[in-house]
Amino acid sequence: MANIIYQDAHSALKDLARDGMTVCVGGFGLCGIPERLIDALLELGVKDLTIVSNNCGIDGVGLGKLLNHRRIRKMVASYVGENKEFERQYLTGELELEFNPQGTLAERCRAGGAGIPAFYTRTGVGTLVAEGKPHMDFDGDTYIMERAIRADLALIKGWKADQAGNIIFRKTARNFNQVMAAAAPICIAEVEEIVPTGTLDPDAVHLPGIYVKRLINGSPYDKRIELRTVRQREGRA
Amino acid sequence: MSWDRNQIAARAARELSDGFYVNLGIGIPTLVANNIPEGMTITLQSENGLLGIGPYPYEGEEDADLINAGKQTISEVPSSAYFSSADSFAMIRGGHVDLTILGAMEVSERGDIANWMIPGKMIKGMGGAMDLVAGVRRVLVTMEHVSKDSVPKIRAECSLPLTGAGVVDMIITDLCVLKRDNRSELFSLTELAPGVTVDDVLAKTEAKILIRV
Question: Are A211 and A187 in contact, with CB atoms under 8 Å apart?
Answer without folding.
Answer: yes
